[in-house]
Amino acid sequence: MTVKSKHVRIKGIKDGLVFLLDDKCPFEDLLSELRFKLEHSHQNILTGPIIHVDIKLGNRSVTEEEKEAVLEILKGQGNLLIRSVESLEEPGSTEDSEALFLMSGMLRSGQVLHHQGNLLFLGDVNPGGTITCSGDIYILGALRGMAHAGVDGNVEAIIAASHLSPTQLRIADIISRPPDEWGTRESTMEFAYLSKGAMQIDKIHNIVKLRQGLNVFKGV
What is the fold of 100-217? Predict the structure, then answer.
């Protein structure tokens, strides 16, 4: 198979790769070239350590299914960690600030993952690994590294994890270093939030009460 088109450009940046995807060609042609480059002409980038990847779809309006099709091709490569996907929103899109962006993988020591918005991360964050996010952080896995939610100053952001045993939690500008006894608590999903300027920890099922309280406070 030979692909002569240049609908997919891959550029190296200081801390990873940027995939620039043509916004004028048919979407199926785009997927075919992306798949071909990863499986044939650019195999060398798939044999090294974890690489952070930013995907830029240009001015192409895409559905969530089309975004997922792109992500599936990239997630099939074990060392590519998707950091962001940028595209023009669909006209009339109902996407709001509560939407969750899905990423998966494992963050090892020294690796940093940043996302603008709310993030659902499927995997573990090991000691020395870091997740930062402008919105909420939900981790379906163990958080043993550092997590910083609300990096732009959002004091209503939360951090939740299946197993909450971090080296440091931070929401907006408030930092909490968990006490030693955290490691001996029962294994259940918990979340961290700010109350009166201090970090609090609670069971995940109480998040509904917290959110309702915030809405009442804001007069919603």
Answer: Pectate Lyase C-like (2.160.20)
